[in-house]
Structure formats: structure tokens, C-alpha cells
Amino acid sequence: MQIVIKDASKTFIQNGKEFTALDKVNLEIEKGEFICLLGPSGCGKSTLLNAIAGFDLVNHGSIKIDDVEVTRPTDKNVTIFQNYGLLPWRTVEKNVQLGLESKKLSKEERKEISDKYIELVGLDKFKKSHPRQLSGGMQQRVAIARALVVDPDILFMDEPFGALDAITRMKLQDDILDICRKENKTIIFVTHDIEEAVYLADRIVVMTPNPGKVKSVVKVPLHHFRDRTSGNFLQVRDKIFELFNLKSDTYIEYNI
Fold this sequence. Notes:
Elements: E1 2-14, E2 17-30, E3 34-38, H1 45-53, E4 60-65, E5 68-69, E6 77-81, H2 92-96, H3 107-120, H4 136-148, E7 154-158, H5 166-183, E8 186-191, H6 194-200, E9 203-208, E10 213-219, H7 231-245, E11 252-255
Parallel strand pairs: 3-8, 3-9, 6-7, 7-8, 10-11
Antiparallel strand pairs: 1-2, 1-4, 4-5, 9-10
Helix pairs in contact: 3-4, 6-7
């Protein structure tokens, strides 16, 4: 599975004037990569994620997944938002099974699959609980399990940990990395947090606003078990800070 984005641009009409949200974005993403789209508010990172997911298509250029043009959302790719989107009247188990209900599976098969992913996110003791009985971090785990249960090729994550406290956020970062490796999923993750991007990503796509452009793509040369206090981690973090301070709009590709 490969994602190829070529000269992708997105324009809107605002107050009678054309506004460019994305400008000639070019990017290739391989199967199993963890890609972070990083940048300040208004740089087009969520717009780009929504375009790849098929929710809000580009109006110039192209986005293809396995040589097929993206024209609409598909159940092979799942989006996880900051707002967990759980159904309050359903238990954890029933929320996770939601995506399985349209498939031709028996009740026993649905339970077996959902149990696997509920255990994977560490909520097997809370299967019968309702969302109101769970913390924010636990609710986001339910959302992750609900996404994984349908076996998607790609997970789109739009600032999924943004509303959580720092300790819960760091724990979920570790969890999503473990899940990514166990399940070999391609993950496209939107964030404005530089340290979060360095901790998670195989490559960081640095975006700048007005209009939204890819300023650089930084390959993160760190092993999977990352230490936020190590010299190598801080070197990558500092390089990202440098990129945001550069005045030039010239595209730069970094292999640190």
C-alpha cells in the first residue's frame, strides 16, 4: 500500500475571495510508515489529512492510494479525532463492535474480534462500562480499538491526544506506537507538538501556513524505543525548531 500525493492544492472561497489552504503538496508514504503532519494552526495539516481520507477532496493535483484516485472515504481507512465520538448509551464492548455490525459476522465472531482489540488497548476489565464511567484517556483507547477492529489499512489521527493531560498523553503515545508495530498499520498523525512528532514519527512533514505548504520532510533516525532526554532526540527536536525559524520557503529534505 502506497500513498502518492502529487501537486495537491485546495482552495476555498471566503468572503468572496479565493483562499488557498494547500499549495502544490508532494509526498509519498509507504505501507507501515508513521507519518506526522506537523505545523501551527492554519497550515493545512488537517485539510491534507481529510483530503487523503477522502472527506474533503483537493481541487488541483491528485492523491492516490495504490494507484487509485481518492474520491471518497472508504472503510479500509479509519479516522480518529480528538473528540472520541463514542455512543453514550453503548458499553465499551458495544462501541468497539460498531464497525463490525455491517459485516456478515455472527455474534460470537464479533465478540471474539472486539475482545482482542479491547485487550490490546488495555480495557478488558471495562468491557461493560459506559463512556461516562471512563476517563478521557480510556475513552480514546475505546476509539482506537473501534478503529482497529475493522482491520483498516490506514489510521488517520487528527490531534487525538490534544485534550488529554501530559501524563495520559505520553502513555497513549507509547500505546499507539506498540499497536502500530504489532498491527503493521500506516498511520498519518496530525499534531502541532514538536516533541510528540519526534517521539512518534518515522518521518515528520513540516508544514507552513499562508498558503499551506510542505516546507520539509525530516526522517527521524531514532530506534523505536525513544528517550525524550537523549542527545539524539534533542538533536532532532532542535532541527525541527530551526526549520520553523527559517525564513526561506524553499523545500528542504532532511536525513539527520
